[in-house]
Structure prediction request, 150 residues.
Amino acid sequence: MILDTLSNAARYNSVHPLFEKAFAFIASSNLDEMEEGKYVIDGDNLIAAVFEKGAKTQAESNEKFECHDKHIDIQVLIKGKESIGWKPREKCTEVKGAYNPEKDVSFYVDEPEMYFGMEPGQFVILYPEDVHSPMIGEGIIKKMVVKVKI
Prediction:
């Protein structure tokens, strides 16, 4: 997991071959004005989703304590304040249901080991080994999630 501000995003371009293109898309977008929906950046290699929803309680979010096998998430907070639960996958012990290959998601019964906060202008990079429960907070949260194919 990597947590940083968008002003430092270029530092991570060399971490994955598609990160430069992902961060260029984010930088060239007027995030505050972006409409909700999906944005194809590079075929099925890079797809962004923008949504604005009511925040969840910690318990609600932990019901879908999730991770992905075939994608890295770059989650950018646009509006609101958000907390995200996190635990390394290697420490998770109980899978909740079967892996869904269409949505590239697995859920765990486990609880997060820690929580971290995000403010607008920050992003988090979540790898397949990062089990997470996002959207914890109060009020409305607007964010972009870029799915980076591995």
